[in-house]
Design goal:
By secondary structure, this protein is an all-alpha fold. Helices cover 67% and strands 0% of the residues.
Length: 75
């Protein structure tokens, strides 16, 4: 939905919108409410993919923070 709206835009608004779309994680992958409500088993491959996605995104965010704060002097 968001990407469809962004693609109708032009110029800087489209560029910024697409950047946000690709940088912010799709947290819907972590939503297992349906599975819990209706007692539907989650495939182990799906669960593994979600866990790896979360770890990779957290690692990338941590790496970005280390790079940003590496040259800071907090004394």
């Amino acid at each position: 939905e968001f990407l469809r709206v962004v693609r109708k835009s032009e110029g800087a608004r489209r560029f910024i919108g697409e950047a946000i779309y690709y940088l912010v994680p799709n947290l819907e992958r972590f939503n297992f409410k349906y599975n819990a409500t209706y007692d539907v088993t989650v495939a182990s491959g799906t669960l593994l993919a979600v866990v790896l996605f979360g770890l990779a995104y957290a690692g990338a965010a941590l790496l970005a923070a280390v790079i940003v704060f590496q040259r800071r002097d907090f004394r």
